[in-house]
Every structure is written in structure tokens, then in C-alpha cells.
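Troubleshooting log. The previous run stalled partway through. Resubmitting the same two chains, unchanged.
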Amino acid sequence: NAGVTQTPKFQVLKTGQSMTLQCAQDMNHEYMSWYRQDPGMGLRLIHYSVGAGITDQGEVPNGYNVSRSTTEDFPLRLLSAAPSQTSVYFCASSYFLGESYNSPLHFGNGTRLTVT
Amino acid sequence: GQQLNQSPQSMFIQEGEDVSMNCTSSSIFNTWLWYKQDPGEGPVLLIALYKAGELTSNGRLTAQFGITRKDSFLNISASIPSDVGIYFCGSEKLTFGTGTRLTIIP
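Second attempt completed without errors. Output:
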């Protein structure tokens, strides 16, 4: 019963490097999302998807790209890493019930990213 | 996104004390969710509330969906060491409060 799996757990990048954070879920959830967590800022939504082929921007999308080619996977790409992107990144998924309701999110265990 | 104002930001209590935290918003919501995050892990759902006025318990935890639909409360009774962590409120709009960090003083 894997739930939401994120890889890697830790990553160190140099400024300007690119990388992809992987996220996979095995619960057949339509909705998937990426958050970043910074001290004192809580969880901020980066990008989300309500189904394969559909993605949209959240609160802090700049510097990140996503795609959703399958229901299971939702990778997050950092195009050119900057020190401001040092953070803990969480992937989450849920059933999508429409605009007014959303079933509770299931979170992965996070990727801790440091950009030097 | 819609702002959720969570308070207090941090709490330092002794084991056995009761804890109370709340979340408020200027917007009306249909769902209030309370999560807990242990160190090094992702948040885990504690309680989900779907109806104004609803009061729901999960063991020593009790949460209420405010009657105005703009606020919610989480209470923890008789705190124990494993209650340490960060507690987040969330809504159906997938935004979260900034969290309440709970520390138990020996």
C-alpha cells in the first residue's frame, strides 16, 4: 500500500542546474498537486492537475514546470535552480469532487532540496 | 489564493494540558480539514469537516466547523508526547494555514 511516493528524499543542486522531482500515486486519484514548505510560510501550492493532460498554476508557479501524461505520475521540473527554491517539496493527491468540494489530500514524505 | 489565518503560530505546553488552535478566513468554505505533520514526514489527515456547525472527534482530538463557515477549531485534550508536531488547517480550495507548532515541555 504505497500511497504517494516521492523521489528523491534529498537533493543538492548548484544554481542554474535543472532537475525533476518525481511523484507517483497508486490510489487512482484524479487530483495531484505540488506544494513547497518554507519556515513560517506553511504549504504553498505550486502547480496542480485534475486529470491526465490537464495542469494549472497554483500560488507560486514561477520557475517550475509540470506535466501529467498518466493518472499515476506528476513530475515537477525545476528549469534553472535558484537559491530561493531551497525548500521542502510535497506532492499530494486526492479524488476530485468538483469545484466546491475536494476529498482530503494524501501527501508524500517530501523532497528536501538545497540550491547552493 | 484564499488566505487561511491560523493561530497560534506555536505553543509550548506541559504533558497533560489541553490544547486549542483555530483557523479563520474572510472567505466561506464548504470543507475544513485538519492535518498533522511529524518531523521529516508529510502531513496526515486528522479530521475532515463538511457541514457548518459540525463537531467531530477522533480520540482525544475534537474539531468544529464554525457556523459562519469562515472558521474552524481544533482541540486536543490531555496532550501526550506524540502530539508534538505541526498542525495545519486546510480547505476545499487546497490552501492551508501557516501551521501551529506544538512543543511539549518536559
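Takeaways: Chain B touches chain A through 25 residues (CB under 8 Å). The mean pLDDT of chain B is 93.
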